[in-house]
Amino acid sequence: MSLKNVRLEVMQFLEKNVDSFVEQFLIPVEKIWQPTDFLPNSESENFVDEVKELREIAKDLPYDFWVVLVGDTITEEALPTYESWLMEVEGVDNEARNGWSKWVRHWTGEENRHGDLLNKYLYLSGRVNMREVEITTHHLINDGFDIGTGKDPYKNFVYTSFQELATYISHNRVSKIAKEYGDKKLSRLCNMIAGDEMRHHHAYSEFVDRIFKVDPSEMMLAFQHMMKLKITMPAHFLRESGEKISTAFEEFSNSAQKIGVYTASDYVDILQKLIDKWQIDKISGLTDEAEKARDYLMKLPARMAKISERLVLPDETKIFKWVQPALIR
Q1: Which of 41, 101, 165, 193 is 20 to 30 A off residue 26, Cα-Cα?
Q2: So which residues are the catalytic ones?
Q3: How far is CA 70 from CA 37, 111, 129, in A?
Q4: Crossing angle for the helix pair 63-77 and 99-125, nearest 10 degrees?
């Protein structure tokens, strides 16, 4: 049987439990929070005063913080790309509306709230050039992404397991920084988004764990493939108005590292967490090739940690078109 057919068979086997995955890892629409729960109420007579208060508190947040918050928002707003990509994964059939396509739609519904909430906050804050933000988002959706997974569900689930944990870290750190600067409302909304990302991480890592139990060698090889390739962030094609895809994402990442939102050390920590979570050292019944892949993965965190220690960030911070010059400190 071909690898493609084996993967399809495994996905169909796991699909029997998709409804339980939805119940365990996602929250019904009527019970989950919505963006307006954390924003000034436009129906209230106090709306204008609440917006003024939001804008006043926002003035204290530093430049790199805004760069990161905008970058996080744009990443969340490019959701159409992520949904369309997942709908093409082997075993996901949207036309037949099978269990996996149900998962993708429901996951998308939850994720859609993140960009909606952050976008509204940015708009009300008055601290960013929203048209430039919108242009970058438009470009990012047009340009799409290539995360190196193809239609392979094993590789895609490794990617999403990693990426959901990375976005949890980013939103959670932004929440803590906002709180330090006295912006409790921004802190709370970012914390709520982080909570969603952690639940989603648990879901996708559970999918991988179950695949390891039924197809350990191929799952191990898929894990190794993704780590050799390196996990590419969803917004790696980031660019501003009038520019081609170049170094914008790298510059955004520099700002994130400078304020400790997401660092090279975090990348290594996530890899180690996944190795521990999936108990890579204890998996049995591997082929010789998969055993070599396991050895590679077990040694990788230490190797990457040494590399991350040598990382030097540039002294100068890129001035993005997104952020108003008055914010530069």
Answers
A1: 41
A2: 33, 76, 111, 114, 164, 167, 196-197, 200
A3: 21, 17, 10
A4: 150
